[in-house]
């Protein structure tokens, strides 16, 4: 755990040196969500109806936008290979990158989402449920994205291939995340959807680092 903690600190220090790496995804999230009322309708009932889907699609795309920065730079300058040669396990590297990625991108999205929810006419209860759903769902997206990013390291047009690989895997999280917020906004039970998001987080958190580690070693070799 101490080694993973030091790796997370390293990742965060690298990211915070280039502030654009964590500002861009959050700015993208805000821009996308605030443009929907302009394109669809400013009518409050309509906004509340589309809010769950808008928030989740924007979150998914924002996280996808941030993945490249956490892996490709270390691959290009040889840092990943040096970490592996120094005896650091691939599992620890992947886990530290996922944690740092979520802290820098996922957590700000969770905190900004209620403000967007208010703009989209979500009530207070639905806003709190949206935060809970994002708190469970965004780490799963980071874990799944780590697998795709590890598979596409060093490939030409890797960003395009990454999108094609991970978007289908993101869909279940998107469906249940949006369904959770929708159920809360309509006063229906949502515990089942929350349970699915929690189960997805546990499963992705357990299996994804192993899969991403294996893929990363193959890409480097």
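Sequence proposed for the structure above (221 residues):
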């Amino acid at each position: 755990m101490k080694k993973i903690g030091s790796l997370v600190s390293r990742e965060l220090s690298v990211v915070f040196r280039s502030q654009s790496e964590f500002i861009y995804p959050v700015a993208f999230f805000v821009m996308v969500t605030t443009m929907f009322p302009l394109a669809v309708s400013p009518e409050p009932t309509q906004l509340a109806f589309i809010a769950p889907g808008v928030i989740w699609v924007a979150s998914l795309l924002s996280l996808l936008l941030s993945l490249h920065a956490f892996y490709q730079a270390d691959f290009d300058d040889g840092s990943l290979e040096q970490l592996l040669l120094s005896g650091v396990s691939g599992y620890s590297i992947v886990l530290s990158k996922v944690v740092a990625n979520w802290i820098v991108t996922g957590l700000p999205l969770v905190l900004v989402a209620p403000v967007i929810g208010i703009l989209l006419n979500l009530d207070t209860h639905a806003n709190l449920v949206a935060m809970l759903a994002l708190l469970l769902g965004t780490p799963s997206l980071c874990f799944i994205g780590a697998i795709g990013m590890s598979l596409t390291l060093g490939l030409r047009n890797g960003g395009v291939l990454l999108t094609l690989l991970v978007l289908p895997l993101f869909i279940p999280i998107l469906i249940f995340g949006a369904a959770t917020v929708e159920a809360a906004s309509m006063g229906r039970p949502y515990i089942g959807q929350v349970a699915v998001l929690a189960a997805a987080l546990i499963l992705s958190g357990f299996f994804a680092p192993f899969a991403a580690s294996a893929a990363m070693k193959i890409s480097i070799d």
